[in-house]
Amino acid sequence: MTFQELLLKHKSSILGDWVKAIVETYPAETARFLRQSKDQFANPVGAAIKTETEHIFDQLVSGGAERQELDKFLDRIIRIRAVQDFTPALALGFIYDLKRAVRRRLEKDLKQQGLEEELLKFEETVDNLMLQGFAIYVSCREQIYDLKAMEMRNLYAKVLERSGIFTVVPDQETLEPLSETDEQNKA
User: Fold this and answer.
1) Helix, strand, or coil here: 66?
2) DSSP bridge partners of 139
3) Residue 169, SS3?
4) More confident residue, 20 or 185
5) Burial per residue of 58-80, b for 16 or more beta-carbon CB atoms within 10 angstroms, e otherwise
């Protein structure tokens, strides 16, 4: 039996272990909800984790894992985790959990059939997946910081405009000090 055939044979148990490991990174109450609620509309995070991990697994097992496809599936999970209260290590650690799940489920078969070399190649692919995931995570966090900065800028602009110190120039969306004429017109 080839390594790929072993992965496919144990697909459901590997995916089960992987999803379980991801869900366990959440606080206990959230993890319980993610495990119990099967409705994709009531539990979009749980549904995304289950669906996207399966897509990622299928891409990796098929051997024709295209970066764009993997990025798309990774993005759906990482985007959720980037806005949550996770450290970068926790947000991305789920990728390495796949290696643990595969080793756990295939360890005996791999030794018996001498497929350790194929396991190492698979793990190298997962390591590369982690690098892709990191790039996606950084991009998501940059978007979040940009949105927060814009929100703060707009908030302060409104405060300064209301105080009469500055006015917003509509075409340029910049703040300019009020001239004496503007101040007199405002009064």
Assistant:
1) coil
2) none
3) strand
4) 20
5) bbbbeeebeeeebbebbbbbbbb
Place of tokens 């590997």: 14
DSSP code, position 155: H
- 175's torsion region: left (phi>0), alpha (psi -120 to 50) or beta? beta
CA distance 112 to 123: 19
Cα distances from 58 to residues 25, 41, 65, 100, 124, in angstroms, run 23, 24, 8, 17, 16
Give, rounded to a whole angstrom, the gap between the first and last alpha carbons of the chain.
Answer: 85
- Characterize 164-181 residue by residue with b for buried, 16 or more Cβ atoms within 10 angstroms of its Cβ, and e for exposed: eebbeeeeeeebeebeee
Residue partners of 187: CB distance under 8 A and separation at least 6: none
Q: Residue 126 has which token pair?
A: 């997962």
Helix (H, G, I), strand (E, B) or coil at 115: coil
- Model confidence over 99-146: pLDDT tens digits? 999 999 998 898 888 899 999 999 999 999 999 999 999 999 999 989
Q: Identify whether the C-beta of residue 166 lies closer than 8 Å to the C-beta of residue 160.
A: yes
CA nearest to 109, candidates 19, 21, 7, 20: 7
- Residue-level pLDDT at 162: 81
The secondary structure of residue 2, as a DSSP letter, is -
